[in-house]
Amino acid sequence: MADSKELEVPSESDIAGLDRLFTNTEYSQYTVQVGAFSVDVLYSNAACTDHDLTGQIPWPGATILSHFIISEQGQALLKGKSVMELGSGVGICGLLASQLCQDVVLTDHNELVVDLLNQNVQLNPPSEESAHTKTLATVCYEWGAPWPHSHQQLKPEEGFDVILGSDIIYSCSTVPLIMKSVSSLLKKSGAFVLAYISRWKVVDDALKSELDSYKERGWRVESLDVHSLICEAKVPPHGFLYLVRPPD
């Protein structure tokens, strides 16, 4: 039986302990409650410090994005739409979105993490309330790369209505790759929702520079008020939420 808890994440000091330098595939099952919504997920309590496997645990950005998803604005944006999540990790945000959307594709670039995603998809079959969901799938996808030909049927011809991302920007090099994926896979009338945690000024500057360059090309970038979504005590430190849209 799964433990029940509100969405919580391990502290980053816990994650980075030297005693966790191994590939851990022993997962515990939890029922994660976000407002009136809940998902059942497996995740590790001691993730590998290999950056490729950080998707085995929830991260603080998921708290921000999950609360946006269940907000009035988030539900209006997502309801009945096609959605793709970049760097899904354990899949909490994408699985929450699947309770509102028509088609949801969860992605990660590491096959071991995609295996975990597949297990979590199996734990969350469509309910009567989310019976309108036609697709809930997982894809191994590398940021900045073309969409995998073997999964072409999962990508709408005009692109996804919404692309989600939480805590996926952790180095300067990831910023242009993520935006390259967004610009090539997002529908022209779509939206990219990014939950970002500021940790290093150099990465903050890289993200700002990249978003500024997109604004110069007509993209619209809106910073949303995180504190309006989450009670003060649960707001991750240095957390931001961006809504990024292509040119009209």
Q: What is the straight-line distance between the termini? A: 49 Å
Write the H/E string, N to C. EHEEHHEHEHEEHEHEE
CATH class: Alpha Beta
Average pLDDT figure:
89
Strand content range: 25-35%
Shape: globular
**Computed structural class:** alpha/beta
Structural domains: how many: 1
How many strands? Answer: 10
- The name of the CATH superfamily reads Vaccinia Virus protein VP39
User: Which fold name corresponds to the CATH topology?
Assistant: Rossmann fold
Instruction: Identify the quaternary structure here.
Output: single chain
Unreliable runs, pLDDT <50, ≥5 residues?
10-22
Estimated helix fraction? 25-40%
Q: Determine the number of helices (DSSP H or I, runs of at least 4 residues).
A: 7
Q: Name the CATH architecture.
A: 3-Layer(aba) Sandwich
Give the biggest beta sheet.
Answer: 7 strands, mixed
> Over all CA atoms, what is the radius of gyration?
17 Å
Arrangement of strands in the largest sheet: 6-5-4-7-8-10-9
